């Protein structure tokens, strides 16, 4: 551990420092307290463990569920995944997860368990997510958990394997960014509007390389649910993570949760530590953004990037209102969205409404939508979902559903014509049967409006749960305040009446299951023989044609869309690389103009993109796998999405950041069909015809690993002694972090009943 410094530190600095296992010339090795696992990004990781003969180091700190692939229809007749999930690839992925949790002995909330839900909803709900912890998941929206003052970030599948095997991750320190939102929110404005407004200002690359701390009075006044919605979308702002300092609101939320520290001495000790988790006065931030709460109005998106935001009182923008370089993107977005510049946003008609996802699938989100329905009815507005609209409400977890039903919210929704579903990711991503049809337009509480995100050709407008409810009732996007009235009041007029005026709220009884002690340490010793590196192809010189691209913010949904994430393999994705740009959605034919469909670029081994933020969005390692499988081993761009960049390194690929002028020159060479050579040994890109080479510098440790094809799990395991020492200290200083789980004392892990044969002893 480094000696604590006396210089003022940020919240992020503090949590980072408290998890340093080892700090050498390369990356720092960080200890990971909590690992959440879902079915999409884990099969190849478990396979990797199996192949290397490795075990899961801390099953007591690992929590697993299914969420992305599962249907959200009634589970009344649920017997098993294999009979319930119709789509073969989805079924296979979920079945693989169930086999893996059995084989590796992990705590799993399956479809017959009320605690199942979207991975980012269940962690906080269970008290698995705690202040001051490091939390990871093979999923970009792991940033959600930062709402508790945790350092929580998305990782790729290779890193999932790394954490399973070692409970550690090599990490470089990110920059500190603070976004302060001061003042009082206007009526009808919610945390979703805050975060959409922020992303509209900073852009989807605004937080690249940073951990954002959200601060200011408007943030401090938010509930935990609202804070989670904000941190959730830090990733849409390009950041590695978002954090909010824990306070009384956090402690009250956590008290009594199944995996929270136990009341009494343990809780007191934990709370005393948590109270130290705030930025010191005078702490330095690399970037500061200040936002006035009163400037924020109910906000919606008009385009195909989360930064394409506009107030509901605004109009669809025209390409001319953007800097010239951005215009082609804007034109493409408008075309995709089927929108005419100048159209008032509140005249945009919708076909579907979706309330759910890890951004807004929590109980408060459902309450907020229910209030709008009641208020509208009271004010003589629409009380039923518009005739041409299909609207669905998908609780984020079985427990959210149970709570909502206890409060009678389901009755309000069903009476108004909303479809009331079971927990899952649902239409946020459309990896399951809930999807938009081509050109269908959806008002959605999710977090991404990328092309094809909710279904091929589907059109997504992001907004708050209150705004989605209002749009569903009105049949078009609308200012929620038109339905609720503008009565003022503490929560922006949305509490003009309460659902409880209609129905008696019932509180769901506290969980019966107590967290129990568990033999965490040493239960999964790593065999020395197994620690040997699995090895990667060496990266020395890669020479060949370079595909030229100019687009900004090429997101991973574009590199490899959701329908290809159901594979259990790392290979075979090359044919689907850039699917939405490469093939016609309707006919499946190649689009002749797309670069990879032209000669000589069908044989590219390099890619030059002049637009920034390549690989932003989701954590899917499928993106570098697809590039690799196609034959592209190096992407050159001005900047990269953080998780994508890491994922490339983990696959022996080089994401090369270069200055704009150099990229422009390389783009020209590439466009002329000339070959380039990336020479890592000498750190130069060699250009054709004797043109001056482009020099570059990459981190020495990364370079060493690439040149030698080193698998960094093996490298981490060389620090076994330091890891064990850290674990000893962790048990002494933060004892509440050990032995979480649902096992009875003496039992190593819970036996998970897969397929509903018998109820888990831990069901509550
Ligand atoms: C499937 C997963 C890799 C992905 C993510 O990382 O975000 C998904 O949750 C998403 O929202 O796109
Ligand atoms: S963003 Fe959507 S798909 Fe991704 S984890 Fe959240 S709900 Fe699931």
From TrEMBL:
GO CC terms in record: 3-isopropylmalate dehydratase complex
Cofactor requirements of the protein: [4Fe-4S] cluster
GO MF annotation terms: 3-isopropylmalate dehydratase activity; 4 iron, 4 sulfur cluster binding; metal ion binding
Stretches assigned to the Aconitase/3-isopropylmalate dehydratase large subunit alpha/beta/alpha domain: 13-475
The keyword Iron-sulfur belongs to this UniProt entry's keyword annotation: yes
UniProt keywords, alphabetically: 4Fe-4S, Amino-acid biosynthesis, Branched-chain amino acid biosynthesis, Iron, Iron-sulfur, Leucine biosynthesis, Lyase, Metal-binding
Reaction(s) this enzyme catalyzes, per UniProt: (2R,3S)-3-isopropylmalate = (2S)-2-isopropylmalate
Superkingdom of source: Eukaryota
Pfam families on file: Aconitase (PF00330), Aconitase_C (PF00694)
EC number: 4.2.1.33
Enzyme class: lyase
Gene3D superfamilies in the record: Aconitase, domain 3, Aconitase, domain 4
InterPro entries per the UniProt record, alphabetical: 3-IsopropMal_deHydase_lsu, 3-IsopropMal_deHydase_ssu, 3-IsopropMal_deHydtase_ssu/lsu, Acnase/IPM_dHydase_lsu_aba_1/3, Acoase/IPM_deHydtase_lsu_aba, Aconitase/3IPM_dehydase_swvl, Aconitase_4Fe-4S_BS, Aconitase_4Fe-4S_dom
Biological-process GO terms, alphabetical: L-leucine biosynthetic process
Domain Aconitase A/isopropylmalate dehydratase small subunit swivel span(s) in chain numbering: 537-660
UniProt pathway annotation: Amino-acid biosynthesis; L-leucine biosynthesis; L-leucine from 3-methyl-2-oxobutanoate: step 2/4
Protein family (similarity comment): Belongs to the aconitase/IPM isomerase family.
Protein role: Catalyzes the isomerization between 2-isopropylmalate and 3-isopropylmalate, via the formation of 2-isopropylmaleate.
Name of protein: 3-isopropylmalate dehydratase
Record gene name: LEU1
């Amino acid at each position: 551990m480094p000696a604590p410094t006396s210089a003022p530190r940020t919240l992020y600095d503090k949590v980072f420092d408290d998890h340093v296992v080892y700090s050498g010339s390369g990356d720092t090795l960080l200890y990971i307290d909590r690992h959440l696992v879902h079915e999409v990004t884990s099969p190849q990781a478990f396979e990797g463990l199996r192949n290397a003969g490795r075990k899961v180091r801390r099953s007591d700190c690992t929590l697993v569920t299914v969420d992305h692939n599962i249907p959200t229809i009634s589970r009344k007749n649920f017997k098993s995944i294999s009979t319930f999930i119709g789509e073969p690839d989805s079924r296979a992925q979920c079945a693989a997860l169930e086999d893996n949790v059995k084989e590796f002995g992990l705590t799993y909330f399956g479809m017959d368990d009320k605690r199942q839900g979207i991975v980012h909803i269940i962690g906080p709900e269970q008290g698995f997510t705690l202040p001051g912890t490091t939390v990871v998941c093979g999923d970009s929206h792991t940033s959600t958990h930062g709402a508790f003052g945790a350092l929580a970030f998305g990782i790729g599948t290779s890193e999932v394997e790394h954490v399973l095997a070692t409970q550690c991750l090599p990490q470089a320190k990110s920059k500190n960014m603070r976004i302060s939102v001061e003042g009082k929110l206007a009526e009808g404005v919610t945390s979703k509007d805050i975060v959409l407004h922020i992303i509209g200002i900073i852009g989807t690359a605004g937080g690249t390389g940073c951990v954002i701390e959200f601060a200011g009075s408007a943030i401090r006044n938010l509930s935990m649910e609202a804070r989670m919605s904000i941190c959730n979308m830090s990733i849409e702002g390009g950041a590695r993570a978002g954090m909010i300092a824990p306070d009384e609101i956090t402690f009250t939320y956590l008290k009594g949760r199944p995996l929270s520290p136990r009341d009494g001495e343990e809780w007191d000790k934990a709370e005393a530590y948590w109270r130290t988790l705030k930025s010191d006065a005078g702490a330095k931030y690399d970037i500061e953004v200040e936002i006035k709460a009163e400037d924020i109005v109910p906000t919606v998106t008009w385009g195909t990037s989360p930064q394409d935001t506009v107030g509901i009182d605004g109009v669809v923008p025209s390409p001319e209102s953007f800097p010239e370089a951005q215009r082609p993107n804007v034109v493409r977005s408008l075309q995709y969205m089927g929108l005419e510049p100048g159209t008032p946003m509140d005249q945009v008609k919708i076909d579907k409404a979706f309330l759910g996802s890890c951004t807004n699938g929590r109980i408060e989100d459902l309450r907020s939508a229910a209030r709008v329905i009641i208020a509208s009815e009271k004010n003589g507005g629409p009380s039923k979902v518009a005739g041409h609209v299909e609207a669905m409400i998908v609780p984020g977890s079985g427990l959210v559903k149970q709570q909502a039903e206890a409060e009678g919210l389901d009755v309000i929704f069903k009476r108004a014509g909303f479809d009331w579903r079971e927990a899952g990711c649902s239409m946020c991503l459309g990896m399951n049967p809930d999807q938009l049809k081509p050109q269908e337009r959806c008002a959605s509480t999710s977090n991404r409006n990328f092309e094809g995100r909710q279904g091929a050709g589907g059109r997504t407008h992001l907004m708050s749960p209150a705004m989605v409810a209002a749009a569903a009732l009105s049949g078009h996007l609308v200012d929620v305040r038109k339905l609720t009235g503008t009565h003022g009041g503490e929560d922006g007029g949305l509490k003009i009446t309460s659902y409880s005026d209609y129905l008696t709220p019932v509180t769901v009884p506290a969980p019966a299951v107590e967290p129990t002690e568990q033999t965490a340490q040493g239960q999964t010793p790593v065999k020395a023989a197994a620690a040997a590196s699995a090895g990667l192809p060496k990266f020395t010189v890669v020479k060949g044609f370079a595909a030229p691209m100019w687009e900004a913010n090429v997101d991973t949904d574009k590199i490899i869309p959701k329908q290809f994430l159901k594979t259990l393999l790392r290979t075979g994705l090359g044919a689907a690389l850039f699917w939405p740009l490469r093939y016609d959605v309707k006919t499946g034919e190649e689009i002749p103009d797309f670069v990879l469909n032209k000669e000589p670029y069908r044989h590219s081994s390099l890619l030059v993109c002049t637009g920034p933020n390549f690989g932003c969005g989701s954590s899917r390692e499928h993106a570098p796998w697809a590039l690799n499988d196609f034959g592209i081993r190096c992407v050159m761009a001005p900047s990269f999405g953080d998780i994508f960049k890491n994922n490339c390194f983990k696959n022996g690929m080089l994401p090369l950041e270069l200055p704009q002028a150099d990229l422009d020159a390389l783009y020209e060479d590439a466009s002329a069909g000339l070959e380039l050579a990336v020479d890592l040994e000498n750190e130069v890109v060699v250009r054709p015809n004797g043109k001056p080479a482009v020099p570059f510098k990459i981190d020495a440790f990364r370079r060493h690993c690439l040149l030698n094809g080193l698998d960094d799990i093996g490298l981490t395991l060389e620090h076994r002694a330091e890891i064990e020492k850290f674990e000893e200290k962790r048990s002494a200083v933060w004892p509440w972090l050990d032995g979480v789980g649902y096992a009875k004392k003496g039992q190593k892990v819970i036996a998970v009943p897969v397929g509903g044969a018998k109820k888990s002893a831990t069901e509550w």
